[in-house]
Amino acid sequence: MNLFSPKRCLICHGEIEAEISWRSIFLNRTKEEAVCRKCESMLLPIEGEKCTVCGRELDLSFCEGSLCLDCIRWEKDESWRGCLEKNISLYHYNDFMKEVIARFKFRGDYCLASVFAGKLRSVLKGIPGDYIVPIPLSAERLYERGFNQSEALIVGAGLKPVPLLARIHSEKQSKKTRRDRIHLPQVFRLESQEKLTGKNIVLVDDIYTTGSTLRHAARILKEAGADKVSSLTIAR
Amino acid sequence: MRFAVIGQKVVPESLLKSPSPTLPISKISSIPTPQQNLSFHFNPEIQAVLQGKQLLMDDLPFSLEEIQEHYENGWLTYRNGIEFHGKTVLCQRCGNSDSSWFASFPCARCGESCIYCRRCLIMGRVSACTPLIGWRDPDADGRTNIAILSSMKLLQWTGSLSDGQREASGRVEQAVISGQELLVWAVCGAGKTEILFKGIEQALARGQRVCIATPRTDVVLELTPRLKAVFPEIPVASLYGGSEDRHNHAPLTISTTHQLFRFYHAFDTLIVDEVDAFPFSVDETLRHAVKNARKPESTVIYLTATPSRSWQRECRLGKRAYVTIPARFHRHPLPVPELIWCGNWGKQLEREKLPDNVIRWVKIRLDAGKQALVFAPKIELMKKILTRLRKLHPDIESVYAEDPDRKEKVMKMRNKEIPLLLTTTILERGVTFPDIDVAVIGAEAEIFTESALVQIAGRAGRSASHPTGDVTFFHYGRTEEMLRAKRVIEEMNREATKRCLLD
Fold first, then answer.
1. ipTM over 0.90
2. Which superfamily does B338-498 belong to?
3. Where in the numbering of this chain does the Phosphoribosyltransferase domain appear (chain A) (predicted)?
4. Which residues in chain A are contacts of B114 at CB distance < 8 A?
5. Backbone angles phi, psi at A171, to 5 degrees
6. What distance in Å separates the CA atoms of residue B293 and residue B270, rounded to the nearest whole number?
7. Which residue from A1, A31, A134, B378 could staple onto A151, CB 3.0 to 4.6 Å apart?
8. Rounded to a whole number, what is the distance in Å from the CA of B61 to chain A's nearest CA?
9. Which superfamily is assigned to B147-325 in CATH?
10. DSSP at B428
């Protein structure tokens, strides 16, 4: 801890007032906060009863049993059934989160990955996985942004990204409808020769929107022999 | 981006014909500028976008090949986006050198750990491998056709100036003609805009580019139609976050101070409004923006009602050229604040009480039906004051910066639907209500600097029909800032009397 320059919130750049406790005084251990309390309070964790596949908060008018209607649709389709074992999303994609992710990903504010580092790390450690795989960008998009946001999130959490996949298509996802996204031919290819037989894989991405990106990635990994593919996203 | 230095030029990695060692651009300490090839046929579209600007590769809708070709022929310049001076890092676009505003990332463009500026990130990321791209005109002035302009009558304005304004207007004109800096120190309500017209006309008639920069978007929106009306023949670009004129380099530009970051050696005459206002005074980076945006030989006019202490000193010592307008256009003196001790008001507020003299002050205004504007140092305190004051009148309102109903409440105040409006310092400048009394509760708070207090006092007695108003600073201990504010106002009144600017 630097005594002279106050620690600043990564999101609003306001000063973070250090919480002083007996623990911090005697053990010289302060909780390293990346954001101030005000910004923290605007990040809404996904809580309560969740869809057992995609991890969204269940809405009574939009679910059957413990699955949401979207996941029921996915699971009905033979070619997608069981592709994605389970998704965990950390926060609601509210207006505040939209702004944070836009700044991180589109404006390229790399250090915002640290905002999620703590939580990401602890959740990732709870998911059984042999490899943590970032969703890849096309070469063109990677040059434009300067970095891959999924990889940044994994590195930020102090873990090792394993780039098993590469992207074939380069068009922007956000310009497509759900139908377009689902019926797209394969968007990823296997980049690595690594034997995946019996492996558990965790995919990491920034947002879960329709789940099609993650399912496309999951399917290719399953086809290459992976046992289970789960995923983690910051928001949904 | 990585570049190779080849002879008297740099070449981007992707355009290299044979392998050469490359570096991220910031590691090339001085980027060579090739000699200008005057027979080169430049692309006028690139000129239109780049002239007077400093933009990023990503801002330019042209191929890298074409950009590089213009550079190699000496029509385009590359500068380092980030510079390193020993241990300090400097963002060349926004002037940021505060380490808490920098971060780094593993960059896919240069393949190294690349430092970037978070301060001006919103305008596109400037990192250590980012070149800032600018235009180079043959004689580096890019002026419009002088012969046509100087034969036209550009200024269509029939209003008249007060004596104080006339003198300032003359000085502004002189500064424009001789290319100098001038501070116009005009009291709140002096009528600053009109004194610029003649000077702007002079500049435009000489084919110069003129910019008025102001901290607030609402001022840009208010000034644009006014200037379009008085200079009907002149294209005016209006720049603020989200405006559409971004790529126009018009003879007359009205811009927020923030948008100045996109300019480089662009203006012959730069008028900086409210130099003291947030964020200019706190923001070194905006000073950098002014330095970048003006041409090396240019006029800068600073407008303010409350110059900083160091500027005031420079004026007194004759180190800074300045002119004052010590009186309002309606020829009445500025209301002088009265300083009244009100005890430990903060403690009373904890018990939902306010000092008796404050309550009395409010009651008198309510009974007389005179509107009042009351300033509080903090939002939380203001909310408590509101609870107390609403017991006196239920229609009393409060307003603060992030208040979603801010505009509505200001409008209601104008329509006299609110008897008393409580506010934080956000209403200290700009907003005018014709006939009000003004008070500050807790004037000793740090936020009430000399300039804030002068601005606050300047809210009273604005209109010609109601040229007076009471200004009261309730405090729990006089501060130097309060005394200075009072003294500055009294000095202005004295000077105005001496110069026969008061009735």
1. no
2. P-loop containing nucleotide triphosphate hydrolases (3.40.50.300)
3. 183-235
4. 146
5. -65, 160
6. 8
7. A134
8. 14
9. P-loop containing nucleotide triphosphate hydrolases (3.40.50.300)
10. S
Q: Which of A13, A103, A143 is closest, CB to CB, to B108?
A: A143
Q: B426 has which bridge partners?
A: none
Write down the domain spans for chain B. 2-135, 147-325, 338-498
With a CB cutoff of 8 Å and minimum separation 6, the contacts of B370 are B435, B436, B437
* B58 neighbourhood in chain A, CB within 8 Å: 144
Per-residue pLDDT of B121-136, as tens digits, reads 988 999 999 999 999 8
Q: Around Cβ B62, how many Cβ atoms within 10 Å?
A: 16
What is residue A46's predicted lDDT score, i.e. its pLDDT? 93
- Residue from B298, B300, B252 nearest B280 by CA: B300
Minimal C-alpha gap between A99 and chain B (Å): 12
Distance separating alpha carbons of residues B10 and B129, to the nearest angstrom: 13
SS3 of chain A: helix, strand, coil, percent, to 5: 35, 20, 45
Tokens of B478: 């006089």
Smallest Cα distance from A219 to chain B, Å = 28
Q: What does R_g of chain A's alpha carbons equal in angstroms?
A: 19
Give the pLDDT confidence of B140-195 residue by residue, as tens digits: 444 544 555 555 678 888 888 999 999 999 999 999 999 999 999 999 889 899 99
Query: How many CB atoms neighbour CB A19 within 10 A?
Result: 11
Closest CA to A163 of B167, B174, B108: B108
Q: Please, where in chain A does CATH 3.40.50 lie?
A: 46-235
Q: How far is CA A130 from CA A149, A160, A210, in A?
A: 21, 11, 26
H/E run at residue B361: helix B356-368
Distance CA A156, CA A113 (A): 6
**Residue of chain A whose alpha carbon sits nearest to that of B117:** A109
Residue pair B426/B403 in contact (Cβ under 8 Å)? The answer is no
Q: How far apart are CA A21 and CA A28, in angstroms?
A: 10
> Rounded to the nearest 10 degrees, what angle do helices B197-205 and B163-178 cross at?
20
DSSP three-state, residue B337: coil
DSSP classification of residue A55: -
pLDDT-derived band of residue B139, with 50, 70 and 90 as boundaries? low
The sign of the torsion formed by the CA atoms of B488, B490, B495, B501 equals: positive
The whole-angstrom separation of Cα A46 and Cα B192 is 54
What distance lies between CA B500 and its chain's CA centroid?
31
Per-residue pLDDT band for A25 (boundaries 50, 70, 90) equals low
Three-state secondary structure string covering B16-31: CCCCCCCEEHHHCCCC
One-letter identity of residue A136:
P
How many other C-beta atoms can be found within 10 angstroms of the C-beta atom of residue B449? 21
Q: Is A143's CB within 8 Å of B116's CB? A: no
Q: What single-letter amino acid sits at B188?
A: C
- Determine the residue type at A84: L
Contact B452, B375 (CB under 8 A): no
Cβ–Cβ below 8 Å for A146 and B122? no
Residue contact A13–B100, C-beta within 8 A: yes
- Distance of residue A16 Cα from the nearest chain B Cα, in angstroms: 13
Beta bridge partners of A68: A63
What would the DSSP string read from start to end of B374-399? EE-S-HHHHHHHHHHHTTT-TT-EEE
In one letter, which amino acid is B9? K
B455, B497, B475: which is closest to B187 by C-alpha? B455
Q: Which helix (H) or strand (E) holds B283?
A: none
| Farthest-apart Cα atoms in chain A, separation | 61
> φ and ψ at B302, to 5 degrees?
-100, 130
**Do residue B103 and residue A152 have CB atoms under 8 angstroms apart?**
no
